[in-house]
Amino acid sequence: MPPSQAETGYSNENATQPIGVVLEIAGSGSQIAIDIQRLNECMEDEDPSIALAGQVGSQIKIRVNNSWLLASVRNQKQDRRADGSIIANIDFLGEGQEEKLTGRLHGFRRGVTRYPVPGALVYPATTGDLRQVYASDGRDSITVGNVYPTRDIRAGLYIDAMLGKHFALLGSTGTGKSTSAALILHRICEAAPEGHIVMIDPHGEYSAAFRRTGMILDVSNLQMPYWLMNFEEHCEVLLSSSGNERQVDEDILAKCLLKARSKSRLAGSLGKVTVDSPIPYLLSDLSNEIQDQMGKLDKATTSAPYMRIKNKLDEIKSDPRYQFMFSGMLVGDTMADFISKVFRMPANGKPISIIDVSGVPSDITATVVAVLSRLVFDFAIWGREEKTAPVLLVCEEAHRYVPSEKHADGNSVGKILSRIAKEGRKYGISLGLITQRPSDLAEGVLSQCGTIISMRLNNDRDQEFVRAAMPEGARGFLDSIPALRNRECIICGEGVAIPIRVNFDTLEEVKRPASDDPSFLELWNSSGREEDAVERIVQRWRSQG
Predict the structure, then answer these.
(1) pTM of the shown model
(2) Are strands 451-454 and 167-170 parallel, antiparallel or unpaired?
(3) Per residue in 498-516, pLDDT tens?
(4) Which helix (H) or strand (E) holds 418?
(5) Where is the Helicase HerA central domain (predicted)?
(6) Exposed/middle/buried for 51, CB within 10 Å: 0-12, 13-18, 19+?
């Protein structure tokens, strides 16, 4: 006996009538023929899932013995051999049992054990069916929006599966990517108020969104000690030469840096010190060591490389823009305090730290991100015996830091983020990448992301890149990526039971990032006191504050 209208909230006449037949079966994808008249009848149905049945991106079900197979429609074309018929390719998503009394689908699981035979009947999937399919299987999850095309089925993301195998959020500029990222992070913070999340924010957008629930760190209060840098990062900041000169400069810097580190009282108690050891040293010690080596008569080269390094060091020490990192006040052993502050250990109800690097001089931004990323990785490696809590590292504008081979510049940040993508989950590090140009991302990095959340992508190359990274069963959804509305996305991979199209929740004003596009007409039609504003801007510009 089928369910009554009172049970489902919708008339179920269309649900019990087939809309087509199976023509061909081939592994993950197959072909069906759909009756146009039945398609038009379904379009009038009150149930939004039935109303979209048979259309591209919608779900249909096929009966196999006493179970239902669920599939999504990938494409449609008119059948020239039979009038009033449409041929569609479908991708199988999974299967569930058929309830004897009601005919409903229940106990849904991914994958297919028994395929239908050509001639099997195709039915529309109802909202009741989809509710079973998208119902949480008991794992911890966060809800981020409603499943399309339903009005009330909540879309959940399984936190452990999503974070355990990394995730990527992709979408062209203006699709609501920043707000969606803030929404997901807010939901994670609500579910885990004692979590440990570090977000690299290159444009200063997210400070407004997490002022209440996070720690906002920028050049005014980051106080990141220069001596935390390893040798490779020192080279990026202090050396500007290339080719053969670069090798000479690196040898000199390595020798002088090791001497400067060895002078620390801490070095005496450790016994073994290397150029990479995060041990405090005085910038003046490094400068004096370079000066001393330059004065030696038996040096292997002229004084030019010594002068290059010393001049760069003096320039950085005297430039106020670098004070957040190269201040003489940062010579104390504050490593434990710095890590506790940045990694939120303890979180004290503020589980996320927003590292706003928009005020960092552009020539060392990549190095600052590299140091922070490497600290996350090294902390996890050395903390294995302690079984330290996992850390989520979220990187906005990820294509700037992990570029593809043709854009690669050999920066240490690309190497460390690639390493975290490949090895991080073994050590309890989760990586979240946010980008509007997935095709400019290093190829191996996106393929390491177990969950992909794709908003609208306008560029063909980006669409192809995402298509290659997504699993087979999501093909039908992928074709709708260019047609997604703002704040809509396709989610597939480990974080969801099956690929889904989701309409994100609206985020409250106070939790939104400051990423709204300016209204040109509105701003160009309001004038007054521009001279004063220009004066203030010039003043801030000159004082670099």
Answers:
(1) 0.87
(2) parallel
(3) 888 899 999 888 888 987 6
(4) helix 412-423
(5) 142-376
(6) middle
